[in-house]
Amino acid sequence: MFQKVTLDHKVFIKPRLFSKNDYNAIVTALSEIYGNKVVPELGLCVSIDRLLKVGDRIVPQSGDGSYEVAVTFSAYFFCPFIGEIIEGNISGMTSESVKVSLGFFDDISVPKSLLPGNTVFDEVEQVFVWNVDEDIQFRIETGLKVWIRVKEIKFKSAATSDDSTEPVMSIRASMDESGLGAPSWWLEGEDQAEAEEDDVEDGEEESDE
Fold this sequence. Notes:
Blueprint: E1 2-13, H1 22-34, E2 38-39, E3 43-54, E4 67-78, E5 85-93, E6 97-101, E7 108-111, E8 119-122, E9 127-131, E10 137-140, E11 145-155, E12 169-174, H2 189-208
Parallel strand pairs: 7-12
Antiparallel strand pairs: 1-4, 2-3, 3-4, 5-6, 5-11, 6-7, 8-9, 9-10, 11-12
């Protein structure tokens, strides 16, 4: 789900960072550039790991005291592989799809076609219901903890206008296989009831945070 990547970058160190030592000043500047940002084909940068190489300072004729330095560094990116199973919580839904959040990344959707078979949308309660058989139904509701399989990762095209509502990075996932969806679906009896309660409570706690 996370990968360590090595990158090169020319970073400007502003006077406001001069109170830090060189290493920390550069890491801070890199974090401001990459932290919680999506880099196409790499994913969402979650942290700067460490500096691997630092070049000589170059002082431009800006007059403000800033300097430029070329660095090689490693950073961790969130970008799950196709087919990977990840855990998240349902954050919302429409009649066409379910939205899933990981807490630090929200642009994950499970289209209706990739929900379990015999799943229908309840227009009154605005939730999906999986009709396992005549006697067993499971509600797919906001806050529910679920396991999903990554089917597609899409990065916003550079040709797309800046004012587009399309997310820079989005994931399409599925819940239509045995073992996917809420963990409580695959338990029985009292264990199932307890797990269903825990699934929703866990999701509500994470949403509050």
